[in-house]
What does this fold into?
Amino acid sequence: MQDDQNPILTLRDVKTYFPVKAGIFKRTVAHVKAVDGVSLDIYRGEVLGLVGESGCGKTTLGKTILRLVEATDGDITYSSKNEKTNLAGLNNEEMLPFRKRLQIVFQDPHSSLNPAFTIFGSLQDPLKKYGIKSRKERRKIIGDLLESVNMRREYMDRYPHEFSGGQRQRIGIARALSVEPELIVCDEAVSALDVSIQAQVLQLLMKLKNERNLTYLFITHDLSVTEYICDRIAVMYLGRIVELCRAEELYSNTLHPYTEALLSAIPVADLDKQTKRIVLEGDVPSPVNPPSGCPFHPRCHKAIDVCKTQVPDLKSYNANGAEHFASCHLIDLPETT
Amino acid sequence: MTSRSLNKKFDKILAREEAGQLSSKGGSRALKKLFNNRLAVVGILLFAIILLTAIFAPLITDADPLKIDLRNLSKPPTAEHWFGTDKTGRDILARVLYGGRVSILVGLGSGIISAIIGVLIGAYTGYKGGWPDIIALRISELFMSFPQIILVLLLVSIIGQSLINLMIIFVLTGWGGMYRMTRARMLSLREEEYVQALRSFGLSTASICYKHILPNALGPIMVNITLSTAAFILAEAGLSFLGLGVPASIPTWGNILNVAQEIRVLQNFWWMWLPVGLVICLFVLSVNFIGDGLRDATDPSQQG
Amino acid sequence: MPRTQDVALSVKNLKTYFYTNNRCNKAVNGVSFEIRKGKTLCIVGESGCGKSVTASTIMQLLPALSRIEQGQVTYHSDSGDVHIEKLQRDGKEMRAIRGSEIAMIFQDPMTALNPVYTIGFQIGESLKYHTDLSTKEIREKTIDLLRGMGISLPEMRVDDYPHSYSGGMRQRAMIAMAMSCNPKILIADEPTTALDVTIQSQIFELMDKLKAENETAIMLITHDMGVVAELADDVAVMYMGNIVEAGTVDQVLRHPVHPYTRALLKSIPVLGRGRNQDIQPIAGSTPDPYDRPIGCQFAPRCKHRIEACDVMPQEVTFNGTQRVMCWRYKEFLPDAG
It folds into this structure.
């Protein structure tokens, strides 16, 4: 369960903008505001879901945390028992010890492994980098890792193309585990797999989390999956967090109109649970030119005048005893401070 | 409806499949595909034959390619001189065989060296991007825009003809092509997820681009090396034909052909130019077949 | 199954084999179904099951190195039965049917539209080929179609290129193209897999409307059981080239009898069932198509496997319209306890 006193990662007003260059001199004419002011805490031992549709910035946020993409602004603070460090300002050297603690599993099993190397070849380099000098020791560690993801040791001498999508994804997980991280960003880690394999990988992820005391940031667009494995869920829209609360709360006590529409749009594989769809008008807007005021107001079925001009803050409400954040002008619950 | 011939082919495959005769054994699929390609196999054989005869020239003929024999000028092919003799009585077969050594050396050597330079630079700057990439691009464009012949003329008039100078010029004008190709492959490969995984572990740029990404880009690069070898051989032949390449004292296929500039020779002394011309043709063709075969074998999107 | 007036397409014992790399892949290995007018048949299965190949076979859009080995594909047109499997792939008759009587929409709207021609041109091409309308009439009809698909300002958007359309709009433009000649049958191959969930629900609304207004028979290919629950009238579950179970959506989703269907339904998280839903992944993975098991393809992964499964089960019809290929199906009937 989560350790409320100790967030492992604290994000304060993180912004990641990508410049759009045009013209002969490649001047910056606009910015893609992929992440537009995100603040949240990730607590040790929790599974925090990050959901949203394309263009909402969830993948960019995951990569920004790992410094695969540079944040334009804001703080990313890593905390452990005796230290607090802002990762955003570090150079490559200083970042190295933190790269051990923060790892990532990718979406596409077909490009997440180097086709030219055996599994052993792909997995041994990070181990070499972090000081495992002897080859024999590396083989032992990689063998153990493969067994912990339910694969045979001998597989380390095979090539990626000899494995199925689900198996490759498990190898990707083994790779992330190889440096003994504390937090793993799962970037749509099961979305590209067949549905019956998704369950295999999800259960594996939960088993590993419990065995190794991991924290997950689980990025996905699939709200059925998050209901099953997440402790808390954050919903993103156009680079901002619009709702953040405990998982059960999101489904039973939805506060934000976008989350409502999202939940109603999801096709449910249960004939008894078919609900009326709230069909949103228009398309997901582009992050280059976000609307004024609340980014969701053009598509919102409940928008009022103030929504067009004022960006709603992410406020904390006390709902059923737990912290429930939402950014909407229409909520009239009592706020917590 | 499928055509009759396709239908027959399918029926055969189906029958063998049902009899359990087919199986995906191990072994490189690329190699298998290469050896299935008949033209490529022909190319490999031809290439090997020509290369080996050039290397083992002394075992095939004991004539001296440089020895002038004034009593045997311009003689047609005989048992003693299989390809006849040229204007100064030199044995043409020997000249073709020993000349092959030089031509192949220049061709392959220039191809490989320009590939090494182009790939080393292209891999790094293509992966890194930013200023190093822009600078390297502009420099390569500078080198690529030099017309080879002008450069050769310049250098020949300043330093004089030599084998080394020729190779230097070929490499200088040729590395740009390999550089651009490697860079293009890099640009697409660097977005692959395994590259991001490597970055997430903090591995160094050199390690990522040379050790991890480059092996994946080698397919097209190998193909290009074979094709540019052919181009260099032709270029050397052309330049030597014009008298600008390797100094006349060293036999190469090109300067053997030199004599064909006179219409008299073309008309009356076919053995002085036809065998050499054929050998050049066959060698370049064989290299092209190999290159095509390599490209088809390593291209994952090709069916069949 | 009695052939009634309301069947638009019948497929009987279809086998489509692929011959790439000098090997034979029995991608579709004996498949039978019917598409009824005004109803949606969902073909559901995971990757490699042959569902897309079935669609390509009906449209005679198979690649060069493949052929229809056996079987019948019969289109019940207004002027009699057309045996599609007997037609030349790109012959006059097939081309007359394609687009005007049987139309298809594809998964990725980004690559299915030609980027160098305007949307209006591409939709108009189909009309030009299949109808006698004048240029002016074609343009008017195109604008009407776009309007009917919910694209705003169609008079202006008809001259736009695909790159200025969003993903959802492109898919709607593709549907407009497909519906332009009022086809009797619409084949949709994973039409919303590449789209966001909120856009997906827009497309589903659209397809429902088409069904109701034009009595179009829809064959929808998907891997998402939720989509099946929402849209299907009839369902066919495919695994490794066979339909293992088929019937009305009520029958198959509420009382599945084939072990694969049952295992599949148990392995997906369903929205609304909460954290403690019991999810069971299916053990193992799909076999290599070149190295298939003898007999029932699902047997190696099946918990209920017996020796008889080494022989491919016969298809059995029960309950009027439910069909299954399993020797032990009787044990899974709802009244069997």
About this structure: Chain A is about 30% helix and 25% strand. Residues 195-212 of chain A form the longest helix (18 residues). The first strand of chain A starts at residue 7 and ends at 22. Chain A has a mean pLDDT of 87.
